[in-house]
Amino acid sequence: MAVPVQYYLVLSAAIFCIGLFGILTRRNALMFLMSVELMLNAANINFVAFSFQHGNLTGQVFSLFTMALAAAEVAVGIGIVLVLYRNFADVDVTKATTLRW
Amino acid sequence: MAAEGGIFTFAPAIAVLPFVSFLIALSAGRYMPKKGAFAGIAATGGSLLLSLLMVAQVASGHAHHMELYTWVGGEGVPFELTFGILLDQLSTLMLVIVSTIAFLVHVFSLGYMNDEGEPGLPRYYAELGLFTASMLAFVFSDNILMAFMFFELVGLCSYLLIGFWFRRSGPPSAAKKAFLVTRFGDYFFLIGVVGIFATFGTGMFGGPGVEESFPVLAEEAMSAMAAGEAMPEAVTTFFGLSPGAWFGVLGLLVLGGVMGKSAQFPFHTWLPDAMEGPTPVSALIHAATMVAAGVYLVARMYGFYALLPTLLAIIAFVGGFTALFAATMGVVKDEIKQVLAYSTISQYGYIMLGLGGGGYVAGVFHLTTHAFFKALLFLGAGSVIIAMHHNEDMWEMGGLKDRMPVTYYAFLSGSLALAGIVPFSGFWSKDEVLYETLVHGLGGSPILLGAYLMGIVAVFFTGFYTFRMVLLTFHGDPRSDLAEDPEPVRWNVKIPLAILGTLAAVVGVINLVPVHAVVGAVPEFLHDWLFHGPETLNGAHYEELTEQFAGYSAGAIPGLGGLGTLFASAGVSLAVALAGSALALGLYRGPDPAEHTEKLGALKTVLYNNYYQDEYQVWLAQDLTEGTVAGTAKRFDDGVVDGLVNRVSDVSLVSGYFLRRVQTGIVSNYAALITLGLVVLLVAFGIMGGWFGGVFA
Amino acid sequence: MMIEALIGLCLLGAGVVMFTPDRYAAKVAFGWSLLPLALSGLMLLNFDGTGNALLGGTLAFEEQFTWITLGPYDLSWHVGLDGISMPLVALSTLLTSLAILSAWTPITKRQNQFYGLVLLLEASLVGVFAALDFFLYFVFWEAVLIPMYFLVGIWGGARRKYAAIKFFVYTNIASLVLFIGFFGLVFGLGDSISSLDLPEIAQALRAGELGSLAGGLIGPELLALSAFVAMFIGFGVKVPIVPFHTWLPDAHVEAPTPISVLLAGVLLKMGTYALLRFNFTMLPEVARSLAVPIAALAVISVIYGALLALGQSDLKRVVAYSSVSSMGYVILGLVAYTSYGLGGATFQMVSHGLISGLMFACVGVIYNVTHTREIGDMAGIAERMPLTVGAFVAGAFAYAGLPLMAGFAAEFFIFVGAFQSTVIAGNGMAVMTALAMFGIVIVAGYLLWAMQRSLFGPFEFDGDYDVTRAARHDVVPLVVLIIVIIALGTFPDDTFFRMITDAVGPLVDGGPAEAAIGSGGGSS
């Protein structure tokens, strides 16, 4: 009946890797943001899975925090994307390279 | 000591008075009549009076030493450095000479500077006052450090006075040269002073009430060594040298300062240039202050030099050589002050010769007579220069004899003294210098005979250039409009000339050695005076020392005996002087004398250029030190040392330039780097933690 | 509370002046700076310290209380003065007042900030000389850099940024080196100290409590040696000792003149003071064993610095390089370990502070009028500005060691002390001294040369400015300095020297090879 915790971990690792892959390959800022969300949620799965495993609610509470944080992050992130678009007429992150030496 | 002072309590005032006149002239001179000259005259007059009082007091058998104040002392230091006054026969005599000449120079300056309407007179009188004060303080110094300090101040004042006319380009340059050349000598002197303190722990010259003095300690050390005993506790020699050798080194170092100030070869080059200063200053410098300071120092610490035969021989040779060397250069000069400059160098050579030759009294005697006749000659030249509207070329003069008789007769008196013609003062003293050297040379120190020979040859040249100068200046027909109608000089020029003219003629009576030898009733004042100085500071003691340590003893020309040698020596020097004078008379007599220097051929060029002494010294100072060495140092510093610093900063800049390339500004690259870093970290932790089952272990 | 009051007065003054309108800033700053000056004069009169501050002497105006406890170490507010630091505090306050006065003419922009920073600098300088706890000391040491950086960087000449950054980076790296060196000692002392109090550390080190570091890898001797070298380099940069001197001419030339006065007059003394306090007091055995290289560096500094000065054509650079030369004498005096040597070195710190301050002030006054410092651009200006040129001549001769001025006294003490020193076998110090003394010839050479070309001769000037007399407030500092220099040179004992020899005495006696007169080498 009970799904072994390893399955959750594999799922979480897979989602994390998908997110990472997205970050490394995508150029669209929105896709970036979505990839970051994926990675955060991979972490959430881990939290919940271990919480379930240990019979301890702390992990679940933490995942709630993470969700709130993710929501805030998306708000800020989309704001940045908007500004990016306003300044560069594009949402391609590789084009906005003026903030360097 | 100060308690029994009496009149000695006022001794410091001898130097303080001119110093006060310096302050007055500096601060209020411009508001005063004659721009501060009267303050200077009053002060030097006061010094003269006090000096005479001191002489009287010392003559009554009271040499005096007093401590003024402690410069450095206390528990914290191994030995004290103090200021004090030593009034003995030598220093009081010198005080009288210096203050007399300073007084006359001040009076003369009224005519030379005030009447000519020079600007900057308060400065002039201030500097003159400081100059006199420094020299007087130098003379009565009771220790070598104080002597050095005032010695340097004398150098400063001569710098200021030589460069008095700073608006021209010549005087500042000459002043700089004078200071630098003498400073070069003083460098050695200062090492000597430091060495004396390190060796003996005291720099005292000696005198009544002085417990430890370095000449006495040196003497004790030498005696102890000779007797095979241990050295006195207080004496430390350096570098493992024997006392004799180490004291010789110290003596040589001090001699460096002496040779610099007294313009002895090869440090003589500053002196002819110093003629750029006002003529009264030249008189002061040459007769009584700057140049006299050097030889006075040798006389002051004669108890030290008398222990060291090598040093005495060096002094004698330097003196003899300088006397001859400078005299030959004086032969071809065209300007009156130049001739006098070279004669000064030459005459100080004689004084050195006398001191080195064991003639302490002779040296001091010549110092005294020279002070008077050289001051006279310079003031006379100054009078001529006033008359000639500051034209100094003797070929433009001529015939001034009838137009300025006071100057002429005074000048003639000085010239006869300079040339060494009997009975003028210079004859007696120069003769005694040569005689002392001769007898000591004959009596077991044959090396002195070489110095004597140079001295006697120089007598010929001295006679020659002196009368060449007199004839060209005063005799014959006027050779220019200026000489035709010279500007008259006033009392303030004539009175000093008259006084000095008389003195130059008669001051020889203080030590008529040949006369005394025949007529015992005629006393040798100076000899007796100096022989009755305080213990360890008198001529008798010095004579013992030279005999004991330097092996000086009086010999005689074989077959003539003592008296015969005395008269033979006097006769020879007089004959040579007359020969030189006669040659000048022969060549430059007549209304319109010709320049005979052409006959010298290539020699003339060499003499005109002063044996190229200036050239190599300027080359050393300017081209080598300032140009090459300093230039190289600057390039090395800018290029290598600072270059290295800048290269270090360049390296960090360049590495930053390359490292910042990592910051592409592309977010994906940063993400990739972060991922990569994480992976690397994980792997590293894994290996460290043994996750891979010891695969890498 | 005197020292706290002194520092507090300066800080308060800095605050007040910062908010004074530009118009009044100069006068308010000068007036205010007279307060610390008067206070330090009062302290000088009431000075009652004896002995050496680090070696158990009685300190004047001492205050100590624990400030922070950091691990095993107590960091305390510990200040006090002995015969070494008292003259330097007096020097700092005097020169600050005079520097402010000499800034009236050249500083025209952002005056309130300028004078505020100068007073801030004064506070830090007093702190450096008074601090007796390493933490406190280091705070003040670094605090000096901040106002200095801005003073050079904002009010400086054309290349001021280069100079300011060079100065800052150079001295900061040096601070790092000395910090590492000092903490090597602190860790090496281990449990034998419980605070960073300098007297405690010094006494522990002299008692031979130094242990090993890195598990015995670095033994006490090696640790002492490397700490000595690190601190020598760190402090040597500030002195500056050749070859760490190249920041100095740049900083001097670019700094506004009043700042050059303070830089040469006081900041350089921080280096020599620290060398005396740390290297030569705490590690005397190492210093003696390194006497040959240290004395050689001193001689090189003297001669090489003087030659560099000879090679310059900018008056300010001439004076700047001559500071390198003069500070070499201080090192020579320190390494001699005799009372005349150490005392002379300390006296030279004060005397050079006054003399170089005077020279820079003179150059500044000339620059105010001519707007050039190149020797070739002017000639004969003595005619137009006699007082300033007179002061210049006096300063030059003071620099050249004219007797009865402070420079001669200091140099003579150093020479006598070094000559009789036995720290190098076979009277090696006598040779070193004789070599170093040649500096007095070169120094006279370049100063007289510069004077002859720029001040004397027929008047010539390539520039559009009207060369005329300097303002009275420009000349006052010169006159004051000359008077002080002559007073110090004529009465060294009655001013500072007795105080100084009292304070350096324990250093002489404590060493293994006592270098008193009569115990020198040579034949017997």
Describe this structure in words.
Chain C: This is Oxidoreductase. Chain C: Keywords: Membrane, NAD, Translocase, Transmembrane, Transmembrane helix. The complex is a heterotrimer of chains A (101), B (697) and C (524). Chain A is an all-alpha fold. Chain A contains three helices and no strands. With 697 residues, chain B is an all-alpha fold. Chain B is 69% helix and 2% strand. Chain B has helices spanning 12-28, 37-59, 89-114, 121-139, 144-162, 170-200, 214-226, 243-261, 270-273, 279-287, 290-300, 302-305, 309-330, 336-356, 360-387, 400-403, 405-419, 425-442, 447-474, 481-484, 491-506, 513-518, 525-531, 539-549, 561-588, 602-608, 613-659, 667-689, and strands at residues 64-72, 81-87. A two-stranded antiparallel ribbon of chain B has the order 1-2. Chain C is mainly α and 524 residues long. Chain C has a domain at 290-490. Chain C has helices spanning 2-18, 22-45, 85-102, 111-130, 134-155, 160-189, 198-206, 220-238, 247-254, 257-282, 284-289, 291-310, 315-336, 339-370, 386-399, 406-419, 428-437, 439-454, 472-490, 492-510; strands at 60-70, 73-81, 378-379, 460-461. In chain C, the strands form two sheets. Chain C has a two-stranded antiparallel sheet. The N and C termini of chain C lie far apart (54 Å). Mean pLDDT of chain C is 89; it is low at 510-524. At the B-C interface, strand 1, helix 5, helix 6 and helix 27 of B face helix 6, helix 12, helix 14, helix 16 and helix 17 of C.
What's the end-to-end separation of chain B, in Å? Answer: 94 Å
Report the portion of residues of chain C in β strands. Answer: under 5%
Main pleated sheet of chain C: 2 strands, antiparallel
Output the strand order for the largest sheet of chain C.
Answer: 1-2
Give the number of domains of chain B: 3
Q: How do the helices and strands follow one another from N- to C-terminus of chain B?
A: HHEEHHHHHHHHHHHHHHHHHHHHHHHHHH
Q: Care to count the β-strands of chain C?
A: 4
**What multimeric state do the chains show?**
heterotrimer
- Distance between the ends of chain C: 54 Å
Number of strands of chain B: 2
Runs of chain C with pLDDT <50, length 5+?
510-524
Count of individual helical segments of chain B = 28
The strand line-up of the biggest sheet of chain B is: 1-2
Keywords (chain A): Membrane, Oxidoreductase, Transmembrane, Transmembrane helix, Transport
Protein name (chain A): NADH-quinone oxidoreductase subunit NuoK
GO molecular function (chain A): oxidoreductase activity, acting on NAD(P)H
GO biological process, one term (chain A): ATP synthesis coupled electron transport
